[in-house]
Here is the input.
Amino acid sequence: MDVNGKTVLITGSTDGVGRYVAGELAKQGAHVLIHGRDAGRARALADEIKSRGHTAPTFYQADLSSLAGARGLADKVAADQKRIDVLVNNAGIGSQNYGPQRQESADGHELRFAVNYLAGFLLAYRLLPMIKAAAPSRIVNVASLGQHPIDFDDVMITKNYSGSRAYAQSKLSQIMFTVDLAEELKGTGVTVNSLHPATYMNTTMVRAGGITPMSTVEQGGAAILHLVQGDDVAGRSGLFFNGMNEMKANAQAYDASARKKLRELSLKLTGLAG
Ligand SMILES: NC(=O)c1ccc[n+]([C@@H]2O[C@H](COP(=O)([O-])OP(=O)(O)OC[C@H]3O[C@@H](n4cnc5c(N)ncnc54)[C@H](OP(=O)(O)O)[C@@H]3O)[C@@H](O)[C@H]2O)c1
Here is the structure.
């Protein structure tokens, strides 16, 4: 896909791999909508993009640890923009950001489930009319190889909590959403795919986990850009990639009854039901 003149929203693009992807798409002439919580970091990225002579990005500040924040982001983007050609749900927190203990969002949901999954679910649905109107268009969900099945009796992980389980549950939720949404979007010209960008890129979330980085944002960014614009994935949907290679995700992603449960819960929690 030639992204020149296209509008691409990348959540979590004030840092890490999202920041790299935003810069690369701007370089190719896209109007990038950058997002994060920190206005200073956004300004630094915008200045960098403009100083290279590329189209100035538009910054949206929103905290996705509340559903009101996610809703506000969607409403602001919908009010300002005429089209969304690509949505990259990339914002996220790792297993150890803010410490090893269980944490909750402003709405009382387990924090990783809320930020990494529910916010992107809400954002995608609120922006879907615009994304459909721009078809052929794409949604890319930045997930992970770290995947833990959802226990539907304790989705908010009130028992046996660990940061890595919470992170992995949120990432499998994104993949289940991808498979589910792809089915719903058949015939609309909108595709949705998910991926593990690269293992332990040198980013804030990896460093916050005390992990020694093993790869770069350039490597993970190339895998995200592949799903954003690769011709070989045009028209293909509901897939999971490990880097550049298509692979199967955790079995729960292909369990239609589990996906239905997750969808119903997510519609209820986000207030989108009905
Ligand atoms: N790093 C890896 O090795 C790796 C591996 C597999 C998958 N991933 C996935 O790749 C994506 C990007 O990760 P990264 O490593 O680039 O992380 P990162 O450097 O820590 O960047 C995370 C981004 O998400 C934003 N963010 C975090 N919490 C937010 C919140 N509550 N509200 C709004 N924005 C928020 C941050 O914004 P602020 O600037 O406001 O903090 C930042 O822009 C994540 O979905 C992650 O799960 C990463």
